[in-house]
Amino acid sequence: MYPSLNSNKMFFYFILFLSTLISISSNSWLGCWVGLEINLLSFIPLISNTNNMMSSEASLKYFLTQSIASINFLFFILLKLMWMKNFMLNNSISILINSSLLMKMGSTPFHFWFPNIIEGLSWFNSFILMSWQKIAPMILLSYYFYSKFIIIIIIMNSIIGAIGGLNQSSLRKIMAFSSINNLSWMLASLLISENLWIFYFMMYSFLIMILCLLFNSMNLFYINQLFFFNMNYGIKFLFLINFLSLGGLPPFLGFYSKWIIINFLIFNNFPMVCFFLIMMSLIILFFYIRIIYSSFLFNNLNLKWISIKLKNKQLFFYTLSSLISIFGIIFSTFFFM
Amino acid sequence: MWMSSICFIWGVFFFFLSLFMFYWVIYLMMNNIVYFLEWEVISFNSVKIEMGVLFDWMSMLFMMFVFLISSVVILYSKSYMSSELNLNRFIMLVIMFVLSMALLIISPNMISILLGWDGLGLVSYCLVIYYQNIKSFNAGMLTALSNRIGDVLILMSISWMMNYGSWNFYFYLEFMKNDFEMLVIGGLIMAAAMTKSAQIPFSSWLPAAMAAPTPVSALVHSSTLVTAGVYLLIRFNYLFIDSYIINILLLLSGLTMFMAGISANYEFDLKKIIALSTLSQLGLMMSILSMGMGDLAFFHLLTHAMFKALLFMCAGLIIHMFNDIQDIRYMGGISLYLPLTSLCFNIANMALCGIPFLAGFYSKDLILEVVMMSNLNLFVFFLYFISTGLTVFYSFRLSMYLMVGDYNLMSVYNLYEEDYVMLKSMFILLVMSVVSGGMLVWMIFPYPYMIYLSLNMKLMVVYVSLLGGLMGYLVSVMKIYSLNKFIITYKLSSFLGVMWFLPNLSTYGLNYIFLSLGGKMFKNLDMGWIELYSVRGISLILKKNSIFYNFFHMNNFKIYLFSFIMWMVMFLFMLII
Amino acid sequence: MGQLMGSYEARNVNLDMNDNPTFDPHVGFNSQRKPREMKANLEDLVSAKIPRSRRDYCAHYLLDYQVCRYKHMPLVYKCAHERHDYLNCEHADYVLRMKEFERERRLRVREQRVAGAA
Questions:
Q1: pLDDT of residue A312
Q2: Model confidence over C11-42: pLDDT tens digits?
Q3: What subunits touch chain C, counting only 3 or more CB pairs under 8 A?
Q4: Can you say whether the dihedral through the CA atoms of A169, A172, A178, A181 is positive or negative?
Q5: Which of A96, A130, A154 is where one domain is finished?
Q6: Domain NADH:quinone oxidoreductase/Mrp antiporter transmembrane: where (chain B) (predicted)?
Q7: For chain A, N or C: smaller number of CB within 10 Å?
Q8: Model confidence at A108, in pLDDT bands (50, 70, 90)?
């Protein structure tokens, strides 16, 4: 269901929100670090659920990796302050700072925790992990960016996201690997400008939101749960649209964001990056289509005690969002041009 | 009640349309006006796509003849195809054919010519396979694919014409003669017209298309479809006048004339003889066109349409009377029992031979005189005159088999001729076939040809015709002892009798090699290497790599943390070193 | 075709059907010869859109024929007289060109004979 209006959790959501804002809008590196720490501290209670051993293990692992990343971040900031006194942009230090932020985000080569943890989270929490938690590290990354290093990371991200996701059957892991792949697109947009990143991030988080909330309300965690006998074709159609949009198929909304990035990458002379991104995006699209195709064709699961239905209010919301997903390109030309 | 039949309505409609066209012919010729209506569809960068309609006296005259023949044929098919269940379908196909032909006639630009041309090819395929048996299927395939070659050539010429900005060739012909592109376009158009009008490499489809119903043959294979190629070349005539490429057409069409004339003498199928005679006359039209005299080719096109359609319709009636047998060895005695039919048949045959003052005389005789006045070599001269003689040869042979002698099919018989619907249609064409020659020769030649020949050269036509007639008489008197004389000319006859093996060129020659090559490519590439390298290969590689990669995720958590440190150290080392 | 057979002998003196006369027009003639002149105006011919190949020395008869044709169209048989005039003129022109050709051939043969005797 929707996140409950539990007052405890609301407190932590509020602090989560605030922490990212602190991290973004501070004008010293220390403030950034403070924000990241508060982010970590406020997210842990959100995901730890003592009823379920998977989620408490996930929260422990999350705490470990993120705290190591924050410590590294603090250490390298102080190192930089000591050596260069905030003046120059040196390559070795910027690599270290960038890689600690990459560890925060869950990007290659520090991504091994990400699919692992996401397996233990509920859908709403995983949505927050995939979308909101990426804002602060991305913006911090853009402050101290080393393009040559990040290009390697982009290519590695896209490859890992594509190839790792091929052999999965758990929907959460698939979304995690697709999130790693989309992380590569977001880093590519950071190569060009921050405005572009905001654009891509908004599109991406919109699509992720629909999918995660849809999975949440249908309570689906594995691919074979899509093969229900009495699942309405309309609901499967919603999945179709949103998955194809996420994969970047024209004329859906997800294509628009990828298209703009390809356009600007080529303008700014990054054709190799562009090539890898497009090729791996094809493989990701393949296993999205595999999910949808099999969900439309296989109808072998016959549940006796549960009926899969969506309430009208939810259905209206999802349908409206899917409509935006279909015609989003046309709508966007009014807003962004 | 018969007035509401589809044949009557459309037949009368086309007839009045043809009279209307006749009025326009006179009007346009009197005032020397050409109407050119143009509608611009899109004008993009340097190319203008427009739909144009050209009304000048030549297109109106041709349309008049086409509509007249089609109205007569539709009225004729009311009785000929009366036992047909789906007569509506048949008439609809004929109407679509006529409309495609009309589109081709009035179009001054290549795109609408392509529409009419493709329409002609497609609808003539549907008409040839109308009787759905194996023979019609094979004939239809041969027709459609031979016509398709011409379509492809016209498409290529369309793409070459994009050099000029629009496809209205009507404007470019006299000005752009020295361009290389125009030379290529001319070559392509010439080859396309050769496929449609069944000249030498592509002439096997015309006798095979006789598997179509006889009204279809009368309309399509005598006057409209096969003359579309000639008409296109007449429109392009100014392009070819001083060029070198037209000599190829002269040679090939002369050979077509000759070959068709010879092969018609070996045939015993009534409709095939008439088809080969059409082929011979088409060769005549093309060859006089290639000598620069396009107006003569047009004249012969029109008069030939008249008497050839009449010949086909007579043949249709005769076939009906002979219980659907088309073999002339079974026929005889038509002049006694079917007098009106034999009247039409004889007049049409004599017009074909060029007997004075019938329709064919004016066009054929003028063509031959102009040929004698012009600068030719001996070979082409012989082709023209020997083909004229061969025309008389097979016409006389046909008349001998059909008219003279006795009925050879059954011993107790009753031939009757009460089919007045068919006869009325034939009479209209009969009148036209007598009158149209003289009528046209005054109207359509604004610049008369001066002919000045010595006596023997002028009489050469007569000599050749008489010789042909004599040969026709001698060949058709077949007695039982003449059979063992055939062995003497066996090898020559087996070459000449099958149209110089041209059908084998179009069927066996093209079939085996290309189909087998296609089959090999399919097995080797589509189901072979391409499967390995692109479809299954890539998916197997990805699958294996993904399985391999997932081993990294099945580890202890501290291994991950350790790997993070290792990566960072590696990055640092990469920088320092 | 007839021209080819008739001009076969002319190849011995390298004379082709399409060649122009090379000798002086008055050689062998006692009286003066007039050069031929076009009786039709060029602008008349252009405005009547006569094709270039027909603009020869008989074009004035052709113009009369065209005038008569368009006056009587479609009863063109009434113009038989003008047509006959034009064809007669063309015939005379053809005969004249034939005679010029033969004269040229004989003069060349004579030249060869003179050169051979000398």
A1: 82
A2: 888 888 778 888 888 888 888 888 888 888 89
A3: B
A4: negative
A5: A96
A6: 107-388
A7: C
A8: confident
Instruction: Provide the shortest C-alpha distance from residue B546 to chain A (in Å).
Output: 5
Instruction: Please report residues of A whose CB lies closer than 8 A to that of B557.
Output: 61, 64, 113, 116
In a domain, B333, yes or no: yes
Most confident of B116-120, C28-32, C69-73: B116-120
Among candidates B29, B376, B448 on the partner chain, residue whose Cβ is nearest the Cβ of C73: B29
Is A101 inside a domain boundary?
no
DSSP bridge partners of B148: none
Chains contacting B (3+ CB pairs below 8 angstroms): A, C
Are A43 and A114 in the same domain?
A: no
Q: Check CB contact under 8 Å for A167 and B552.
A: no
- The domains of chain C are located at 2-17+36-117
Q: Is residue B125 within 8 Å of B142, Cβ to Cβ?
A: no
Query: How many beta-carbon pairs below 8 A join chains B and C?
Result: 51
CB B240 within 8 A of CB B297: no
**Model confidence at B170, in pLDDT bands (50, 70, 90)?**
confident
- Closest CA–CA distance from residue C115 to any residue of chain B (Å): 32
SS3 A94: helix
Contact list in C for residue B371 (CB cut-off 8 A) is: 1
> What is the span of the domain harbouring residue B61?
1-239
Would you call A64 and B550 a contact, using CB atoms and an 8 Å cutoff?
no
Question: How far is CA B163 from each of CA A22, B175, B406, B477, C118, rounded to the nearest angstrom?
Answer: 66, 14, 64, 61, 63
Q: Verify that A164 and A61 share a domain, yes or no.
A: no
Q: Is the pTM of this model over 0.80?
A: no
User: Is the minimum CB–CB distance between C8 and chain B shorter than 8 Å?
Assistant: no
Number of independent structural domains in chain A: 2
- Which pair of tokens denotes residue A241? 């649209």
**Number of other residues whose CB lies within 10 A of the CB of residue B396:** 23
pLDDT band at A5 (very low <50, low <70, confident <90, very high): low
User: Has residue A111 been placed in a domain?
Assistant: yes
Residue A215 lies inside a defined structural domain of this protein: yes
Task: Quick: pLDDT tens for B213-265.
Answer: 999 999 998 889 989 999 999 999 988 888 888 999 999 999 999 999 999 99
Which of A96, A126, A160 finishes a domain?
A: A96
Three-point CA angle C75, C77, C82, nearest 5°: 120
Tell me the C-alpha distance between B371 and A72, whole Å: 102
- B553 has a chain A CB within 8 A of its CB: yes
> Which of A76, A167, A285 to mutate to test binding with chain B, by most B CBs within 10 Å of its CB?
A167
Q: How far is B285 from chain C (nearest CA, A)?
A: 19
Which residues, including other chains, have CB under 8 Å from residue B363's CB and lie 6 or more apart? B296, B299, B300, B302, B303, B304, B437, B441
B326 and B188 fall within a common domain: no
Residue A90: Cβ-neighbour burial (10 angstroms; 0-12, 13-18, 19+) = middle
Is the bond preceding residue A251 a cis peptide, omega within 30 degrees? yes
> Total domain count for chain B?
3
A214 closest CA partner among A233, A244, A180, A242: A242
Which value does ipTM take for this structure?
0.90
Yes or no: say if A187 and A157 are a contact pair by the CB < 8 Å rule: yes
Going by the DSSP 8-state scheme, the letter that residue C26 receives in this structure is: T
B35 forms beta bridges with B55
Same domain for A60 and A152: no
Distance CA A180, CA A129 (A): 12
**Owning domain of residue A211:** 106-337
Rounded Cα–Cα distance for residues B446 and A24 (Å): 92
Cα dihedral sign for C20, C24, C29, C31?
positive
Rounded (5°) CA angle B455-B456-B458: 65
Q: With CA atoms as reference, report the closest residue to B67 among B12, B104, B15.
A: B15
Residues A328 and A250 in one domain: yes
Report the pLDDT value the prediction gives residue A1, as an integer from 0 to 100: 43
